[in-house]
Amino acid sequence: MYLEDYNEIFKQAIARVIQRERKLRTDKFTIFCYENSIPKTTLNSIELGKNDSSMTTIFRIMNCMYIEGREFMDLVNEELPDNFWAEWRLAEPMPKEED
Question: What whole-number distance in Å separates Cα of residue 5 and Cα of residue 1?
Answer without folding.
Answer: 6
